[in-house]
């Protein structure tokens, strides 16, 4: 008997006339199931059915049936299903309740009134299962993104659930972080649990997947792994120097994160900064943007506007409509406030008059891209631009970067995303431990960050 | 450090501040709190809080000075044409405002160690069992604060790059509105994460609360001693109230009253190792 099963389950969010899940049937058995699909397609909703957050937390209407560990999901509250389904959310920073590792992992045990004497052994076992026994006693603030996400995995495992649901757990992580989470998922699947993992970009996890499914427009369908394979396309080109870092040392405090960095970028060139979390990529971008004054050295920028796309750019949106957001940037940069071409390019014409925060997450990401990159910046700086982006938004971003390059803008992208590097970068610089090393073509960089991708997986 | 010991010390300080209006005793309580916070958290971490406390004291002084026109010793007289603030501005009103400001400052600094020196779970552990659920929710909220600060800074920087410049209070809406909306979305996400981990199932238990060490026991004993002496001093008329109106006079101070406040200075010795 399957650990969980959905039988023609349909679900409508409150106030929505369109189903987020449309007659979905699925049997969840032990092993690793990867669920791909675009943003807003229904992946997260499907995962939330497994522990009852949909419909108990979010409200809305349901039709069909769902059972988990023999319990009727529609009649069992989430807090009771929590004993059977562990859940890991996308952003490790937004799911932590406490500030130390052991206490954070023990939160679920405290909630279910497990006797205090039994807790330490269970916490220790969960830390071992998640591969982070060595982090015991540490403060969360001192951990890397990958380590924090593993703490979230341990917190989900501590109640010994039969099913572990992971909602885009790697989208915030560098290559090492992805490897940590992936290894934990493999071990859980090998231990006889069902691991259901939703990902926009499943390349990194396909090698470990037992089944691959896609959810699009609320419908579940099998999908070929070939769809997600990456084909690097390097295209070096001669460029004129547009910006330069001359022996720059910089950091948010007195202690430099970057040390003696020498780097030049050209007009019409896309430079990708790669490297681990905390290596100095964001510091380098902030120096180039003028948001951080170097401790020593000099920064040369081209004349004209500098556009800066921060991590989580959707957080910027505050105007009444998407069109207003784009026009605000154009007006402020002294350009003609005609948002039309940009909205057209990013497929946002239909939602131009809507409040940006009411849009689906994919549309919201594209709205933020349009708002920040509108017009003709001479230098565009993009910090982890594909975090949490679906395929459509990623394609829009790649097209936008290509457009900026053609118009002679210098573009610098800090990213963990090998696919993006392959798609847009002319040159790759690895930033690690405060140093910047030019690694040349994108092909070399992607070769060391991508795992082997299998041709086909059972659906 | 045990959350219970710190909470007991905070309670003793609050009692010392609220038990009497005598500014000399309030100043003693303030000195004890200031010494404790500076010892435990250091000047750099405490500075923003002290700036805020200073502004609160200044506000208390100015409000009382401007609106209370009682007292026998006018500093100057403002024409009656000034609505509400017109009339004599007196030395007594200044003194009363200062005494009120002392109380506000001491009360804030008395509870400051609970956020500056303790982890959120230590504060939860200091609460009685029936409040554990509320405490866990409060701890989760406290955990959002650093993220909120980072989010505010990131949004301000990104808006600046889009051409935004801070020009008057209204212009800040471009940073504050998205920061608040993001904070609300983060809160909903956290609530969802807590629910997914069984929060709200019923009575909670606690994971291995920190054991009481010698310093905690000393602090608990000091807090208990101080509270007992404060109550005794009050009952014996040794910590009497003070009122500057209508004539300003010096506050009365007695040996028992002063001794009652001395145990509150214990953290200045016990918390040296925290930094």
Structural account:
The complex is a heterodimer of chains A (459) and B (275). Chain A has 459 residues and is α/β, with parallel strands linked by helices. Chain A has 15 helices and 19 strands. Chain A has two domains: 4-228, Rossmann fold (3-Layer(aba) Sandwich); 240-449, P-loop containing nucleotide triphosphate hydrolases (Rossmann fold, 3-Layer(aba) Sandwich), CATH 3.40.50.300. Chain A has a six-stranded mixed β-sheet with strand order 6-7-8-3-9-10, sandwiched between helices. In chain A, strands 15-16-17-13-18-19 form a six-stranded mixed β-sheet, with helices on both faces. In chain A, strands 2-1-4-5 form a four-stranded antiparallel β-sheet. The two termini of chain A are 18 Å apart. Chain B has 275 residues and is mainly alpha-helical. Helix content of chain B is 67%, strand content 3%. In chain B, helix 1 runs parallel beside helix 8 (214-235) and helix 5 (132-161) packs antiparallel against helix 7 (173-196). The model of chain B has no long low-confidence stretch (mean pLDDT 91). Chains A and B meet through helix 2, helix 3, helix 4, helix 5 and strand 15 of A and helix 5 and helix 7 of B.
SSE topology:
The complex is a heterodimer of chains A (459) and B (275).
Chain A: E1 4-12, E2 21-28, E3 31-36, H1 43-50, H2 53-57, E4 61-68, E5 71-72, H3 78-81, E6 85-88, H4 101-111, H5 119-129, H6 145-157, E7 163-167, H7 175-190, E8 194-198, H8 203-206, E9 211-216, E10 219-222, E11 240-250, E12 258-267, E13 270-274, H9 281-289, E14 296-300, E15 306-309, H10 322-332, H11 340-345, H12 361-373, E16 379-383, H13 391-406, E17 410-414, H14 418-424, E18 427-432, E19 435-440, H15 442-449
Parallel strand pairs in A: 3-8, 3-9, 6-7, 7-8, 13-17, 13-18, 15-16, 16-17
Antiparallel strand pairs in A: 1-2, 1-4, 4-5, 9-10, 11-12, 11-14, 18-19
Helix pairs in contact in A: 4-5, 4-6, 5-6, 6-7, 10-12, 12-13, 14-15
Chain B: H1 3-18, H2 23-67, E1 74-78, E2 87-90, H3 91-116, H4 120-126, H5 132-161, H6 168-171, H7 173-196, H8 214-235, H9 255-261, H10 267-270
Antiparallel strand pairs in B: 1-2
